[in-house]
Amino acid sequence: MIGRRHFGIGGAALALAGAGGIARAQGSKSVLRVVPQAEPQVFDPHQSGVNATQENAALIYDTLFSWDADMAPRPQMVDTWNKSDDGLLYTFTLRPGLKFHDLTPVTSRDVVATLRRLLVRDTQNQILASLVAEIAAKDERSFTLRLKAPFGYVEFLLCGSNGVMGGIMRERDALTDPFTPIKSRIGSGPFRFVEEEYRPGAKLVYEKFADYIPRPEPASGFAGGKRALVDRVEWMILPDAAVAYAALRQGEVDFLDAPPLDLLSTVTNDRNIVVGEVWPIETYAVLRFNSLHPPFDNVKARQAVAHAVSQQDYMSAAYGDPKYWRECYAFWICGSSNGTEAGSEAFRKPDLEKARTLVKESGYDGRPVVLIGGSDVLPYQRMSLITADLLKRIGMNVDMQLSDWGSVAARRAKKDPPSQGGWNLFHTSANGAQLASPLTSPSTITTCDGKNFPGWPCDQAEEDMRMQYIRETDPAKQKVVLEAMHRRLWESLPYVPLGQFKQPFLWRSNVKGVVKANTVVYWNIEKT
User: Fold this and answer.
1) Between 122 and 313, the higher pLDDT residue
2) 69 — pLDDT class (breaks 50, 70, 90)
3) The CATH number of the domain where 192 resides is what?
4) What does DSSP assign to residue 154?
5) Is the Cβ–Cβ distance between 122 and 451 less than 8 Å?
6) DSSP string, 422-455
7) How many angstroms separate the CA atoms of 432 and 281, rounded?
């Protein structure tokens, strides 16, 4: 990635970042220029849940079902479907006229191959994967899904984690080993990736796909009519926040994706700029442990860090003004229907002495703790610095390794020992909509099969309760299970909650139609 020192302010910066992209305007074509939160290093939607990967997926792929603004599943590529009386056999028929960007038709063979791959890779979908007896193509547009036992969330989970991870690929791509990222960037969504204009570290280009047929319903979250109302979406990679803000003020870019808050005051009174919300619920910041390797394979080491944490310190450093953040000790999001904080009482105030005692009791042997972090995402950089200092204060040696966030996102998927290119800790944040339920949150899946979210916590008792929660139909009984699960999470600590914050997004006032969804989407947007 191009470093910050290589950029000037304004038009000169964008000429560098876009390799002349703005100077070479696309005639009369309408162009939406976006500064993404980070540049994607992984493009395979089945490989990574990071925002950059999933935003790319939302542009170029389509899904069988999509989550609407209320996170209810709606048919997307599916035209009609039915379920047998015993709830075991689903039959789906695709909408007519679906095409991939290479103009080949989307068939049930593509869908079957994609689902088989998805059910291996998607951590959230392991529940459904364990229940699938067979997926088979009936004809070019129809396929069946047979279950071993009835399950109430089939359509919901066919959307994939984040609501876009279930993007349907060509059969030839989907047959790639599930643990090997696919090389092509060809989907059937409203925009196509323009390979010939891709400049890693500088610019990514997406063009309206003329053969895409939107659904007739209004856009709602990831669902409804995905109408490409601009001809091109260009991602301009500008790691320096000052450069990005200046470019927005000068009209050289149109949209800043999850920008740092430090410079927000420079645009709040600018009538040409909208300070708006995209994510439908507050964002959640966390410190994630690698539970496979010492020292955090020992629960006492994880508890030590949790007892040392001050959410106020993290939130103040990362997000500044308290009007944008609050403390929260709920694994399933404060303010949501599952926002219990039960079990967190002992962790509300930092206790360094207790933390040091727990470090000793854990058997920590002094080996370096590898803390990886995104230097180009300012809140992650600042949280990393706080954690590095905190670990030293409780008696741990720290090896802090900062790099661009895309590289961190790729590295965190590695299970190698920390001394061999792996890791022990990283910070991340996510839109709370996905994390607000034990069903949808990949972060609290504690299966012991190594297929869960990076960090790979193993707690079968917690997982058994999660399955009980998902299958329980009585809301009162479900709440009892939820609270028991939450208390258990504060004992086992797959990660440490660091608080919640409101993430403003910025766009020029001539940009209309921004859709609220838990991953930024660029359909329905037009420039006036």
Assistant:
1) 313
2) confident
3) 3.40.190.10
4) H
5) no
6) --SEEEEEEEHHHHSSTTT-GGG---SSS-SSTT
7) 5
Question: Quick one: 310 and 428 in the same domain?
Answer: yes
Q: Are residues 212 and 304 in the same domain?
A: no
Is residue 41 in some structural domain? Answer: yes
Instruction: Give the residue, 511 or 284, on which the prediction is more confident.
Output: 511
Concatenated DSSP letters of 356-385: HHHHHHTT---PPEEEEEETTSHHHHHHHH
Same domain for 364 and 462, yes or no, is yes
Structure confidence at residue 499 (pLDDT): 97
Query: How much of the chain exceeds pLDDT 90, in percent?
Result: 76
Q: Which of 430, 428, 435, 446 is nearest to 490 (CA)?
A: 446
- For the purposes of burial, counting CB atoms within 10 Å of the CB of 419, is it exposed (0-12), middle (13-18) or buried (19 or more)? exposed
The angle at the Cα of 342, spanning 49 to 383, to the nearest 5 degrees, equals: 45
Question: Does residue 24 carry a pLDDT above 70?
Answer: no
Which one-letter DSSP state was computed for residue 178?
A: T
pLDDT at residue 175, as a whole number: 96
Q: 239 and 92 share a domain? A: no
Q: Report the CATH number at residue 93.
A: 3.90.76.10
Q: Which pTM value belongs to this model?
A: 0.81
pLDDT at 123: 72
Does residue 264 fall inside a structural domain?
no
* H-only helix segments in 88-206: 108-121, 126-131, 154-157, 171-174
Residues 512 and 461 in one domain: no
Hey, what are 3's tokens? 């470093």
Tokens 């060809």 correspond to: 186
Q: State pLDDT tens for residues 72-84.
A: 999 999 999 999 9
Domain membership flag for residue 276: no
Q: Please report, for the domain that includes residue 368, its CATH number.
A: 3.10.105.10
Task: Please count the residues of the chain.
Answer: 528
d(CA 12, CA 26): 18
| Torsion angle of the four alpha carbons 515, 516, 518, 523, in this order, in degrees rounded to the nearest 10 | 0
Averaged pLDDT, 25-42? 84
Query: Which residue in this structure is represented by tokens 């063009």?
Result: 207
Span 449-454, average pLDDT: 90
For 59-75, what is the mean pLDDT? 94
Q: What is the pLDDT of residues 373-432, one digit of tens each?
A: 999 888 999 999 999 999 999 999 999 999 998 899 889 999 999 999 999 999 999 888
Instruction: Look at residue 305 and give its three-state secondary structure.
Output: helix
Phi first, then psi, for residue 497 (nearest 5°) are -65, 135
The Cα 463–Cα 460 span in angstroms is 5
Please state the φ and ψ torsions of residue 453, each to the nearest 5 degrees: -60, 145
Amino acid at 145: L
Containing structural domain, residue 405:
283-501
Query: What SS3 state is found at 326?
Result: strand
